[in-house]
Design brief:
Two copies of one chain form a homodimer. The first copy, chain A, is mainly α. Helices cover about 60% and strands about 5% of the residues of chain A. Chain A has helices at about 10-35, 40-45, 55-75, 90-105, 130-155, 165-170; strands at about 120-125, 125-130. In chain A, strands 1-2 form a two-stranded antiparallel sheet. In chain A, strand 1 (about 120-125) and strand 2 form a beta hairpin. In chain A, helix 1 (about 10-35) runs antiparallel to helix 3 and helix 1 runs parallel beside helix 5 (about 130-155). At the A-B interface, helix 1, strand 2, helix 5 and helix 6 of A face helix 1, strand 2, helix 5 and helix 6 of B.
């Protein structure tokens, strides 16, 4: 029996959106915890797991960049540039909302055949070259989960009552 | 132009193996750091980001379970059961090695058509049902990265000089 073949449109794009939706949910629990306990929410937004790691805000910004960059590169279009000036939970939620809106606006027809296309870009000092498939598999998903899980870990380390099911999101 | 279609054999299985290889590399940096600084390595193996989170050893064990469970379920075979008794870096490395060996031993022909197959199992108290594709996308990869990134975060929080490139591994 033949199965519908996987494509990055049907595998990667929903996977990315799901990580962002769950990250939004985890951040909402962080904000609620600050309210309940009287902690200044900015203390959570600026928290880090190590002095030379990025803050919670930085983790969300990099997750956003990875997500919108992936949809844009695979479609051969430009991603919107966001200012990295988020300072509270509401602004981080707005960043995630705008990121998801951009991804939802991408014409998936433009991703047709992207699995085998060459994807080249500069990541800081590093010139990187992938196929669409290796970009999704070896760069986008690891990067996105790295930042989303680190955001989760920052909140969890600071007492926010989140569990792995918050990270995984609703199943079925 | 038609492109070779993606399958879970060619997308998920290498993605899983890559996370495990990079996790092994990050753990090796943790062990080296303990040696250089004179920290008791067991302090790192037993470290947590929060008192009610799993230790570094627990994170590696759950990453291993997620990885071998995925290869086994998609192939319709049983995964080997490991004892969760690792207490030092060498034992954690051995667990990762055995996990990768099992995955490499799985006959990928058995994964043919797994993308559309129903995958049902019990995760603690939760009965879960997926297709092969949604299992890979919504459960396996998020779970695996969650534990691997948390292992990274535990070491990074404890001073181990790892960076995101250690987590992502060699590109190209």
């Amino acid at each position: 029996m033949s199965q519908p073949s996987l494509t990055l449109s049907t595998f990667l794009i929903p996977a990315i959106d799901r990580v962002l939706a769950n990250l939004s949910h985890v951040l909402a629990k962080g904000e609620a915890y600050a309210k309940e306990t009287g902690i200044d929410p900015v203390q959570l937004v600026q928290a880090r797991l190590a002095p030379d790691m990025m803050t919670l805000a930085g983790q969300v910004q990099r997750a956003s960049d990875t997500a919108k960059g992936a949809a844009a590169r695979l479609a051969g279009i430009d991603a919107p540039s966001f200012a990295d000036d988020e300072q509270d939970f509401a602004q981080l939620q707005d960043r995630i909302r705008r990121t998801r809106e951009f991804i939802a606006s991408v014409d998936l027809a433009k991703l047709e055949g992207c699995e085998g296309r060459v994807i080249s870009f500069q990541a800081g000092p590093y010139p990187l070259t992938f196929t669409g498939t290796s970009y999704a598999r070896d760069f986008v998903l690891p990067n996105l989960h790295f930042h989303a899980t680190t955001a989760y870990g920052i909140l969890r380390h600071n007492g926010v009552p989140v569990g792995k099911l918050d990270y995984l999101g609703p199943i079925n």
